[in-house]
Design goal:
The chain has about 300 residues and is α/β, with parallel strands linked by helices. It has eleven helices and ten strands. The protein has helices at about 25-40, 60-65, 85-95, 110-120, 125-130, 150-160, 205-210, 220-235, 235-245, 250-265, 275-285, and strands at about 10, 15-20, 45-50, 70-75, 100-105, 140-145, 180, 185-190, 265, 270.
């Protein structure tokens, strides 16, 4: 494998080649954005779910312009897979008067009361206004947003204690808007995972692809494996040494080849690079290298 500076990315539409930036904006996501805009007036606050391992890369910048001044609750999902120290730093970073943040394991944690409490704090002015008018406060309404594969459907199903939303381990499962009534306290509007047309920030596309927000058919595995190995060599070399029992080499490519030799990924006497890259990415997604957060508040 020859590593080139400009990354070759497979285009989902047309099978052509693009360089440098990953562009991925399926038609249903355009429709989802329009539906979200139309339904924002029906909700009191926004619940935005992000991946705790990439709290900035998993943010959809379109949301800022869409939701305007609506209060927002940021949920950092998959906290069980992220560095707990960095997660705490990110939670502090996100807290403002009109924005709250919590970190959750969406499968194991019990968080219904946490969501209700955060919603009531964010919507305190609205609740007080209803009380002054002699109106019994109605159920708060929240729109659940986020990019693909951060756990929106798992979040809703756990709260509803039933399969109210379709789930899957691939991005783009939820395709349409739907209301889910939890109880008298809160109602949720589920929305499809929405990505934006072009990833402008450095390595955002690689981070999203590495952790499964972009389908594997769109991005070559060697590109994201190379990015991940390069990042780990710089930021957490011990994770590589401990997991694979290797000595780091001079370049990410040579380090990956060393992993392949250690694992015995040989084909006709040569390293089977296709198998190596896929298995390395799989190891990261399955947390075999430990709890990693790929972004720092200090950055």
């Amino acid at each position: 494998m020859t590593r080139k500076k400009d990354k070759k990315i497979k285009s989902e539409q047309g099978g052509g080649q693009q360089t440098s930036n990953i562009n991925w904006f399926p038609g249903h996501m355009t429709k989802a954005r329009r539906q979200m805009e139309e339904n924002l007036k029906k909700v009191d606050f926004i619940i935005e779910i992000r991946d705790a391992r990439i709290p900035l890369a998993s943010k959809n910048p379109m949301l800022d312009e869409l939701i305007g001044t609506k209060p927002r609750l940021i949920i950092l999902s998959k906290k069980d897979k992220a560095d707990p120290v960095k997660t705490k730093e990110w939670l502090e970073y996100f807290q403002t008067d009109r924005q709250k943040a919590v970190a959750l394991d969406l499968i194991k944690d019990s968080y219904k009361n946490v969501i209700i409490e955060c919603g009531e704090k964010l919507c305190a002015p609205l609740i007080e206004k209803q009380k002054r008018r002699g109106i019994n406060p109605r159920a708060l309404r929240a729109m659940v947003c986020g990019i693909p594969n951060v756990g929106k459907s798992t979040f809703i199903n756990t709260l509803a204690k039933r399969k109210a939303a379709q789930t899957g381990d691939k991005p783009g499962v939820t395709k349409a808007l739907q209301w889910i009534k939890l109880d008298k306290a809160i109602e949720l509007l589920d929305t499809p995972g929405v990505l934006w047309p072009k990833f402008e920030g450095e390595h955002i596309g690689e981070k999203l692809a590495l952790l499964g927000a972009i389908r594997d058919e769109v991005v070559t595995q060697d590109d994201i494996a190379f990015y991940a190995c390069e990042w780990l060599m710089k930021n957490d070399p011990e994770a590589l040494k401990k997991t694979y029992q290797i000595e780091l080499q001079d370049t990410p490519y040579d380090t990956l080849l060393e992993i392949g030799r250690k694992r015995g990924y040989l084909q006709k006497g040569q390293i089977d690079e296709n198998r190596l890259m896929k298995s390395f990415v799989k190891d990261i997604r399955e947390n075999k290298l430990g709890k990693l957060t790929w972004e720092s508040v200090d950055d």
